[in-house]
């Protein structure tokens, strides 16, 4: 790398305003000469410009005001690089500096973070394109984390790794997997720049000055400068390596390769969404101090009332009344012991334990182990309002001078879905009183619009796609596709399978029909037995589909339900109730029965079957991703408050796959045609290697846009396809909104858009938002015959 030699910056020293002239000479005007590649990175004293001020703790002098302290720049086209200490700049000089970056191609890692700070210095700044290596790893190289795992497995089971930083590499990967396992393997975090440097270049990055407090001192040392410039060349190198193109490819070649990749459409949606998300953060949500005070008083009264009831049941806990009612005080050993004794006296069983063997008092664990305990119910009656009350000052501490909260909403999960920080406004309590705190200022209303049943609609589309895929695999006689090759061994050992799939109206071949679809793996069945079992599973599914549709794709049950505008939860509830003998459908299918009713009758039935419909929600959202009956039972209890048995969960599962057999086909394909053996870490025991020869397996799929998804769990493999598609739909909606409507956005929660709108424009904006969201969803769902609906709530606060 050649460096543009200048008289102004000296080696190992930060520059000040004097760099402006040199930068203007090194960086062409984008409006005249077109955009060039700018690699940039910022060092800040806080996570966001509105972060709570946290003073230095090392006894040194410094300014803890949240601010962008250093901007590092590298121009690959001419080698110019510098790091500027922005504390030496006036506000106008900062604006001038950042303004020079406008219209160029920004390259970096997790650029939403840098973008928010630069936008805070110049409100009109906007790059021509964003090449973000974190988003690239998510959108175009989802196999990266499993390639990294394979390096570990091969090194620890076959031959030592030649990597000089192997120990650091292995620690990174195993710790990341352990965190994912502890968090329930819901989504997992995106790859960090450290991950990419270790994976792609066997390079360990310096993290000496990573924390914000390192950028608060009055004087920045040469070591600070070296830290800033030490990895400035990693993002552009990583971008080209991720795309598998030559390292000297110019930025236009990088963009062409990125746009033409099978994950390029999804990346473009993410890239364009960043512009909207950073400006949404800058807008923020208005905070109502009066509503917060009212809620605090109400929660305090509820906690006191619940504490009185708890003392009636367990008098001994009265000694801990003050501690239990104080949101700032946690559990001490004496209180834990007293709770344990009370539960043990009632149930004869002690507290559940964590993975490390410590007593667990989490609401989730207690409700799962002691679902009928009066002590647990009374205790949660106290802890829940106290916990919610404790969140109020946490949020209030982040209210900025403008009276608003400015959470950072980023795209940093493996599915591509967003997360929220400072504070997290994607998991606030659904208590309407809590949401009332996020109010509209005078003369405005808050519009909350979300996609109706979007996860299930996407699931229905994936079911249609699976039916089409099966047809393709059946007709792929040349065995060209990897999916056909993965099931070729089944076709070879069960040659009668393919002819029957061509006409499933015929009886299932006897040898397949008589096979055990689920042989005991402990008995170590031979390959012939396994092939017959898997073929039998497929034939059962296909037979159900053909019975329901007679070969007409438009009659696939899940698709049909949405075409006819029926409530999928009611359909599932009717199937469950009918199978249990508690409801008579008169010989009709649940879909046909519900369709035969008038809308008023459907609404009345929804009230009559309120409990079963609630259970159906757990079934629909759990089984769409292939939960086991045991997991479904726990999920229903914990997430929907269901008082059901494992046997009832098992029956509900059976009813679901009888009702929507195309979902079973999707899962069958994922397990068989879209899985492959691989050297990985055990997804259930993160620090344990699992070679391909010992059951290591990956589940490959794609979102409806074609973006590849990979997981080491079947359930997550299904989840990533569905929720990943949902993220892409939402991003398409964000980027398609007119710019003036984008300026009204104040929050975004997966599939819900929250806007603060002048009263005079409410009806107009609502119509535009709804139309834009439906169009975005239609772009991916209509090709599978799935229509889209959205729901809007409007009021003086966040009412959804």
Automatic annotation (TrEMBL):
Annotated ranges, domain DNA-directed DNA polymerase family A palm: 431-761
PROSITE patterns named among the record's database cross-references: DNA_POLYMERASE_A (PS00447)
Name this polypeptide is given: DNA polymerase I
InterPro entries: DNA-dir_DNA_pol_A_CS (IPR019760), DNA-dir_DNA_pol_A_palm_dom (IPR001098), DNA/RNA_pol_sf (IPR043502), DNA_polymerase_A (IPR002298), RNaseH-like_sf (IPR012337), RNaseH_sf (IPR036397)
PANTHER family: DNA POLYMERASE I (PTHR10133), DNA POLYMERASE NU (PTHR10133:SF27)
Complexes and interactors: Single-chain monomer with multiple functions.
Keyword list, A-Z: DNA replication, DNA-binding, DNA-directed DNA polymerase, Nucleotidyltransferase, Transferase
Range of residues in the leader sequence: none
Organism annotation: Acidithiobacillus sulfurivorans
Record's keyword annotation contains DNA-binding: yes
Catalytic activity as recorded in UniProt: DNA(n) + a 2'-deoxyribonucleoside 5'-triphosphate = DNA(n+1) + diphosphate
Family: Belongs to the DNA polymerase type-A family.
